[in-house]
Design the sequence.
């Protein structure tokens, strides 16, 4: 609930779009946000019950509210982005990026040079980019250099100085890389035609250059200038080879920005694909640290404004996975099928790969952070009140009711803790009754933990549907643990989770890390239970054959099996062969037993 001063400030806020700023008692900026309706948005902070701890802390600290009214929501988005970058408020998502990305500069000169730079100078020069890597820039410049002869010197090639023969051609001219504009050997008109073609290539449009070179090649071949025609053909091959390496989507998709988002408990990952003339000319993923449990819609909205500003995008059409408010000037499209949906899926895949790479790096550099993130994600996905640092999973194993056993596997901090695994012989249940077996095992496990004052898990997973879950709950009721430990049942379809007193299962995303850990737990419980079951079954099989022979004990059985490898071979062995292993007295008993059988 807001204090009297804050309530008064809210009451005077306008119902217009704008940006609001929260300050603490010391006048420090805490948070910047944008709104369609300032009064409604700000008031909502003081009327909602927030689950997020950081949001509750923020609301308690607010002492002063300032606002800036703007004409449209687009203006509010831009202003919010600029204020966050300038002031870096503590409770806003991190959008700061000090990287200086490379550009391709076409210099404002009579014979323009084309070169890479990281500094933008406002002298009328044209800048294309920025590019996410210098490698891309050099690849493009090498392509341009192979197609068009351009000067690399920084001479002032004014008409008067060229006419006065002030300059002489350099080695670049003799190598064929420059056509010699310094001596007037290359006309200004022809040079600028090449610069126009370079502009198109940098924008991703290869069509004009290919058409020009193909026309040149045909003219030269028609005039029997085959060597010159071959040189032009090599240029066509270079251009077509470079174009084929671009991800061509659909020539009809022109000048479009594509955005997608993948997020977890702590971070959002927004991928940006820029399309021009049917090809992807840029891909970039922005990592955003969450501060106040922001929604994907809020993160994507902020990221779109930031990325478009950073990369100077002028496209007025955007593809996104869901509706976002970006103002009336922008065409926002949510593709459902076809090539447009395919390119959106490609963007999402890029975001997922970026996220996976980050996780792999975090695992190596900061395993604690990786652990905390997974635990926080599991808590959210499974609707738990605390992080499941200690999980136990139970599984029953029996074949037609014979040798019933159960296994309990333990995971701590998302990893198997094999020293804590436990196996159980079913003692009180006759026949194949999975429900009663599960009730017995769960009771015995937690009775013992309580008696020995060992820590209890935060989560119990029962491998089975509603029936096994209900049986397990009976045991927790007897021990007074119901409600103190979270418990879920997993059905055969692994993504279905059953909760106590809830007939409708919870479905987990098949690609989620939470589901992967549950799958690992279930597989491990199954493996451990089956191994124990087989061992018990084998021992019983031995007991019904060799150990039932009068005068033959366990040690003799072990010696026989070590030598003969199986009971069948022992049964078919001769008296002499048996005597060599266990002596004539025991050999006589074994032979007598099997001959009677």
Sequence:
């Amino acid at each position: 609930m807001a204090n009297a001063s804050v309530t008064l400030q809210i009451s005077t806020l306008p119902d217009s779009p704008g940006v609001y700023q929260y300050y603490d008692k010391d006048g420090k900026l805490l948070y910047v946000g944008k709104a369609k309706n300032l009064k409604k948005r700000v008031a909502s902070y003081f009327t909602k019950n927030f689950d997020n701890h950081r949001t509750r802390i923020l609301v308690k600290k607010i002492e002063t509210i300032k606002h800036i009214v703007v004409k449209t929501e687009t203006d509010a988005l831009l202003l919010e982005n600029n204020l966050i970058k300038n002031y870096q408020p503590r409770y806003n998502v991190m959008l700061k990026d000090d990287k200086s990305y490379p550009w391709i500069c076409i210099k404002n000169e009579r014979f323009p040079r084309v070169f890479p730079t990281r500094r933008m100078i406002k002298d009328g020069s044209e800048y294309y980019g920025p590019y996410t890597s210098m490698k891309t820039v050099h690849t493009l410049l090498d392509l341009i250099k192979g197609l068009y002869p351009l000067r690399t010197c920084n001479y002032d090639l004014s008409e008067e100085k060229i006419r006065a023969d002030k300059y002489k051609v350099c080695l670049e001219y003799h190598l064929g890389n420059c056509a010699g504009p310094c001596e007037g050997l290359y006309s200004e008109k022809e040079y600028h035609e090449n610069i126009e073609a370079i502009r198109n290539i940098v924008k991703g449009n290869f069509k004009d250059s290919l058409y020009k070179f193909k026309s040149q090649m045909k003219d030269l071949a028609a005039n029997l200038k085959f060597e010159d025609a071959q040189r032009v053909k090599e240029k066509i091959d270079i251009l077509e080879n470079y174009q084929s390496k671009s991800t061509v989507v659909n020539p009809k998709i022109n000048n479009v920005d594509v955005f997608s988002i993948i997020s977890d408990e702590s971070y959002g990952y927004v991928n940006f694909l820029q399309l021009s003339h049917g090809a992807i000319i840029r891909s970039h993923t922005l990592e955003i640290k969450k501060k106040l449990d922001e929604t994907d819609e809020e993160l994507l909205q902020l990221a779109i404004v930031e990325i478009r500003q950073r990369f100077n995008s002028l496209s007025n059409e955007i593809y996104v996975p869901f509706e976002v408010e970006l103002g009336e000037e922008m065409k926002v499209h949510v593709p459902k099928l076809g090539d447009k949906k395919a390119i959106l899926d490609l963007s999402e895949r890029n975001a997922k790969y970026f996220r996976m790479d980050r996780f792999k790096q975090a695992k190596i550099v900061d395993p604690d952070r990786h652990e905390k993130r997974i635990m926080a994600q599991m808590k959210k996905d499974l609707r738990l009140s605390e992080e499941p640092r200690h999980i136990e999973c139970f599984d029953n194993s029996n074949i037609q009711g014979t040798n019933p056993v159960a296994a309990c596997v333990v995971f701590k901090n998302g990893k198997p803790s094999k020293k804590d695994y436990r196996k159980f012989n079913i003692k009180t249940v006759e026949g194949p009754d999975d429900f009663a077996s599960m009730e017995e095992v769960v009771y015995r496990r937690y009775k013992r933990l309580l008696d020995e004052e060992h820590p209890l898990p935060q989560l119990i997973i029962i491998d089975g549907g509603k029936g096994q879950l209900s049986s397990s709950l009976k045991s927790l009721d007897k021990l007074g643990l119901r409600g103190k430990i979270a418990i879920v049942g997993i059905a055969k379809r692994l993504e279905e989770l059953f909760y106590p007193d809830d007939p409708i299962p919870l479905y987990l995303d098949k690609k989620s890390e939470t589901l992967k850990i549950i799958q690992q737990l279930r597989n491990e419980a199954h493996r451990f239970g089956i191994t124990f079951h087989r061992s018990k079954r084998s021992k019983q099989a031995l007991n019904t054959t060799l150990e039932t022979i009068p005068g033959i004990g366990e040690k003799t059985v072990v010696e026989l099996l070590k030598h003969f490898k199986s009971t069948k071979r022992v049964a078919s062995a001769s008296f002499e062969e048996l005597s060599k292993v266990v002596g004539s007295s025991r050999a006589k008993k074994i032979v007598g037993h099997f001959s009677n059988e």
Remarks:
- Residues 513-543 form the longest helix (31 residues).
- Residues 162 and 183 are 6 Å apart (CA to CA).
- The chain has five domains: 6-92, 103-204, 256-363, 381-538, 544-596.
- The chain has a mean pLDDT of 79.
